[in-house]
Amino acid sequence: MFSRSTSRRSPGPLARAFERFLLNRAAVAGICVAVPMLLLILSYPLWWTFQPNDIDLLAMNSGPTATHWFGTDGVGRDVFARVLEGGRISLLVAAASTVLSAIIGFLFGAISALAGRWADAVSMRFVDLVMTLPPVIFLLVLASIAGTGIWPTVLVISLLSWPLLARMVRSRLLELRERDFVMASRGMGAGIGHLLFRHGLPNAIDILVVYATLQIANAILLEAGLSFLGLGIAPPAASWGNMLNAARSTAVLEQYPWQWLFPGGALILAVLAINFIGDGLRDAFDPRAELN
Question: What does the domain layout of the chain look like in residue ranges?
């Protein structure tokens, strides 16, 4: 008869990864910051009095008050509403560009690893070409071609971000393709679609999760930088980047600090929180963590 201790099932790899994530204090702190911010960003139209583009001519450049918690800007728009709307647009751009770049990167990396020698050579040379382009210049050229707006910004960030993921996925699946079950699938006539989504995707899901979390923070920064330069989200739509761009004059920086302090603080908090979560997920999914 088995004892109670030996008959008890050990936790699976996902449960152990979740336990390791909860032991990471920085990751838990990131969750505690990111979740309330997300709830505020998504729900503010239901309970906040002002809309992002409502103009109050009697309260132009007004400081924080009980009516306007974060003050107003130079034309009387509520900064609190614009910060939350900017967060909504920034997160939309970041999430959409991350999904698109993850799809492109996974397909390139998986096809390179599983489709044969010629596909590997061609796809990796293309990845090398993209990675050798200067990222800042490439980003500005793409932005000037695609134009301003949410979806052109999503496209620009996606096209810049996928090559690193493609290399990580390829590295993982090169080992996978030598496994017995993959070779058996090939021998039974499995096509590239079956190999990609039946074997490749489940074995690269940890890479995709960690990449997506860290890429969201990177995409928020890229969107803010493009909007700050006038190549991302165009006014009057609110984003953290174009709010900082509107407040970059010396007079605003010195006399009306709330117009740049709150969007800049929200940007920093969001990026730090998401990076902490991403670092926690990376450590939780690291196979070497089992040895610690």
Answer: 27-45+68-285
Strand partners, 78: 72
> Which tens digit of pLDDT belongs to each residue from 24-61?
899 999 999 999 999 999 999 899 888 888 888 888 88
The rounded percent of the chain whose pLDDT value lies above 90 is 24
**Secondary structure (DSSP) of 68-96:** STT-B-TTS-BHHHHHHHHHHHHHHHHHH
Quick: pLDDT tens for 198-233.
777 888 888 898 899 889 999 998 888 888 888 888
pLDDT on residue 288 = 57
Mean pLDDT of the chain: 84
DSSP assignments along the chain, one per residue: ---HHHHSPPP-HHHHHHHHHHH-HHHHHHHHHHHHHHHHHHHHHHH-S--TT---GGGTT----SSSTT-B-TTS-BHHHHHHHHHHHHHHHHHHHHHHHHHHHHHHHHHHHHS-HHHHHHHHHHHHHHHHS-HHHHHHHHHHHH-SSHHHHHHHHHHHHHHHHHHHHHHHHHHHTTSHHHHHHHHTT--HHHIIIIIIHHHTHHHHHHHHHHHHHHHHHHHHHHHHTTSSSPTTS--HHHHHHHT-SHHHHHH-THHHHHHHHHHHHHHHHHHHHHHHHHHHH-GGGGG-
Enter the CATH code of domain 27-45+68-285: 1.10.3720.10
What are the pLDDT digits (tens) for 235-281? 888 889 888 888 888 888 888 899 899 999 999 999 999 999 988 88
